[in-house]
Amino acid sequence: MNASDIILVTSHNNKSYQTNTLSHKASIDYQYIVAIAYVFIQTTICSIGFILNIINFSVFICKKFSASAYILMTVLSLADAITLGVRIPQGCIFLPHLNHHATDAAIYIYMYSIYVETPVSNMTENISAWLTVALAIERYVSMKHWSLSKRYFTRKTTRQLIASICIIAFIFNIPYFAIQRVSLKYVDGVLQLHSDLTSFSRSTYYAFYSWLRIVFVQIIPLCFLCVSNCLLFILVSHHNRRFTNNKMNNNTNSKENKLSGNTFGISKTHKQRIQVDDTSQDSCTDAINNFGEQKLITESNLQSIQENELTIPEKMVDRDEVQSTSRKNTHDNNDNDNNNNSSIKTKKPILQDRSKQRRQNAQRKLTILLIAVILLFLIGQVPQSLAYVRVFTTLGVCSIDQIQTCVTYHLYRMITINLAQFAFASTFFLYLFLNRDFRETLRFICCRLCQKCKISETNQRLLRETNYLNEPPSNFPK
């Protein structure tokens, strides 16, 4: 069989026609553009995105990321990796449009796309959409009602939620396995693939199912994510304003405490100086009085007795002043001790406030990360939701009979599919730039792998050296 004679034949609505004639004829310009986009751009995005999401998954399975939000992100990374991984071979279907040389691989990849890629990618896309909705709910409850999130969003309930989402997504996408019927035949030495729609895909049940899927997978999740993203943005902005206000209040309070401490120290030293001056003044007056007493005793005993009687109450007054000042000093010391005890007692509430602020800051940063993830998901999924055949034909751009040859539909579908896959692949950079724990864990994993590589290289070098030493010389007989 000549590979250049392979023809891919499909039949839809009981009308058999050739969709791809793998010959050396010149194709239309838009077919070249679509083929280049699927072969090179889509394959590159899917390959790189698959590797990056595997890195995300390997980082999030570490023990540091044990919170419920990180568990959801772990499964989300795995679902995105599967979505991109199963779409890597899809671009090879369009290779004959570029090299005008057909192979059997294009036909078998087309069968793989019908029976494996379409159902599995739809399942994982559903899982990604519903997990993103669950993340938005968890973040909103954590920011608004911390006690409720701590009670209901535990690890066990999160795992149960993930299992239920996966089961529902699998059941919900089972009809994709029964949409098309594919058969391979050799006609005059030419391999032909006949693809026909099943009776189920032509029934009203499938039409109802397709609209139901659009509602539950596209419309409701995307609308909910738009609203929840706005609410989360409002909560984060409100928290930022409150955080800045608290920081300004703490700075002003610390300045006031410093000023009050300085004034208290100045007043204390001033009191001590006054007390020293009072005691020195009392000693001076005592010396003067003693000198006056001695002088007056020599003159007359009567006058000395009278003056002594007059000076006794003055001394008593001075003693009372000294005692009162000493009592004041002891009272001030007791006040200082009470202030120290009260400061020790207030250390625990201050530490609790600091831990609360740290927790709130961590929740705020995680919510900012989730807002970016939701925004990226919406950028990729909202345009793609309009690329479904029933939605696109409902908008009136192309009719159902002309959808296979509609240039606008094929170009729009190619752009939106690549945009959605780029969104799935770009979450790695959001985690890398917006999460410090992710960066530290990734750095630790890379360093550990580098150390293992160095150890293996040294072991191989030592093994080569030992083998070289064990070999006999070439000039001696073995």
Can you describe this structure?
- The protein is of the alpha+beta class and 478 residues long.
- Among the domains are: 24-240 and 364-434, Rhodopsin 7-helix transmembrane proteins (Rhopdopsin 7-helix transmembrane proteins); 437-468.
- The protein has helices at 29-60, 68-86, 96-99, 104-144, 146-152, 155-172, 199-202, 204-299, 301-345, 347-385, 389-394, 407-425, 427-434, 436-470, and strands at 7-12, 15-21, 180-187, 190-197.
- The chain has a 4-stranded mixed sheet with strand order 2-1-4-3.
- The two termini are 57 Å apart.
- Mean pLDDT is 75; it is low at 1-7, 9-27, 291-302, 304-322, 343-347 and 474-478.
Q: Which stretches are low in confidence, meaning pLDDT under 50 for 5 or more residues running?
A: 1-7, 9-27, 291-302, 304-322, 343-347, 474-478
Q: Report how far the terminal alpha carbons are from each other.
A: 57 Å
User: What's the CATH topology label of one domain?
Assistant: Rhopdopsin 7-helix transmembrane proteins
Radius of gyration, in Å, reads: 42 Å
**Biggest sheet, spatial arrangement of strands:** 2-1-4-3
Provide the succession of SSEs.
Answer: EEHHHHHHEEHHHHHHHH
Strand content: 5-15%
Helix content: over 70%
CATH architecture of one domain: Up-down Bundle
Shape assignment: globular
Q: TL;DR of this structure?
A:
With 478 residues, the protein is an alpha+beta fold. The protein has helices spanning 29-60, 68-86, 96-99, 104-144, 146-152, 155-172, 199-202, 204-299, 301-345, 347-385, 389-394, 407-425, 427-434, 436-470, and strands at 7-12, 15-21, 180-187, 190-197. It has 14 helices and four strands.
